Amino acid sequence: MFAERRAQQPPAQARDAQLWDLATNEKLQERFLQEVQMAELWLSRGENGMGVQHLSNALSVCMQPQKLLHVFKRTLPPKVFQMLLHKIPLICQQFEANMNEQECLEDDSD
């Protein structure tokens, strides 16, 4: 009976990975909400540049960026949405740079 239960449990590495994923997801969600709130604050003050910066930060940590862009298209003023669209290539470059840096760090630890 004990052996059957143990066989049904995921290996320790898988459990650890699941816990890490949950913690990471919580941090990403927290960061996402903070960035959206900061964007709202700046946009309400008429500081479109700062608002767009925080919207792009939110977009970079979002799990479904295409859906978020659709929401932004419907809810943001056209000028602000266009400013955000112009930042997308920079967001992609930053993401790629972060990924390359992470790969280098992983290679160094081997």
TrEMBL record:
<dbReference type="GO" id="GO:0030943">
    <property type="term" value="F:mitochondrion targeting sequence binding"/>
</dbReference>
<dbReference type="InterPro" id="IPR022422">
    <property type="entry name" value="MAS20_rcpt_metazoan"/>
</dbReference>
<dbReference type="GO" id="GO:0006886">
    <property type="term" value="P:intracellular protein transport"/>
</dbReference>
<dbReference type="GO" id="GO:0006605">
    <property type="term" value="P:protein targeting"/>
</dbReference>
<keyword id="KW-0472">Membrane</keyword>
<keyword id="KW-1000">Mitochondrion outer membrane</keyword>
<keyword id="KW-0496">Mitochondrion</keyword>
<dbReference type="Pfam" id="PF02064">
    <property type="entry name" value="MAS20"/>
</dbReference>
<dbReference type="InterPro" id="IPR002056">
    <property type="entry name" value="MAS20"/>
</dbReference>
<dbReference type="GO" id="GO:0008320">
    <property type="term" value="F:protein transmembrane transporter activity"/>
</dbReference>
<dbReference type="GO" id="GO:0016031">
    <property type="term" value="P:tRNA import into mitochondrion"/>
</dbReference>
<comment type="similarity">
    <text>Belongs to the Tom20 family.</text>
</comment>
<protein>
    <recommendedName>
        <fullName>TOMM20-like protein 1</fullName>
    </recommendedName>
</protein>
<dbReference type="GO" id="GO:0030150">
    <property type="term" value="P:protein import into mitochondrial matrix"/>
</dbReference>
<keyword id="KW-1133">Transmembrane helix</keyword>
<dbReference type="GO" id="GO:0005742">
    <property type="term" value="C:mitochondrial outer membrane translocase complex"/>
</dbReference>
<dbReference type="InterPro" id="IPR023392">
    <property type="entry name" value="Tom20_dom_sf"/>
</dbReference>
<keyword id="KW-0812">Transmembrane</keyword>
